[in-house]
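Lecture notes, unit on binding sites. The following record was shown on slide 14. It pairs a sequence with flavin mononucleotide.
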Amino acid sequence: MLGVPHYSFRVPSQLKAWIDRIAVPGKTFRYTAKRAESFVGTKRVIIALACGGFYGPGCPAENFEHTLSYLKSVFAFIGIANPEVITADGVNVSSEQHELSLKAA
Ligand SMILES: Cc1cc2nc3c(=O)[nH]c(=O)nc-3n(C[C@H](O)[C@H](O)[C@H](O)COP(=O)(O)O)c2cc1C
């Protein structure tokens, strides 16, 4: 389970540092001539994501979303194709929206 705040359109530096430690050849995957081969096996991953604003499809800031897309790429690369995602977005828009977003998540 990863608790991920959306910081400056991407993952916080602490989480990036952890990813840099695990997404390493010989640790979670190895390169072959054709592709990266995972050592991770079957693992359940849950991403609990919070964003101050909105970045979903159709939102004006959609193109600034580099958090979930990045995490999905990293996990796919090390062999976890389908992480489960729980999102609370818009939590800094207003106190009403904060409550709504947390309930929806
Ligand atoms: C340093 C920093 C950068 C942030 N950048 C963004 C951002 O780019 N977009 C956004 O929607 N919210 C942003 N937020 C708001 C957080 O995503 C939001 O508060 C989150 O739900 C909770 O994170 P926190 O508990 O670490 O404050 C930022 C917050 C901080 C502290």
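Take-home: The mean pLDDT is 96.
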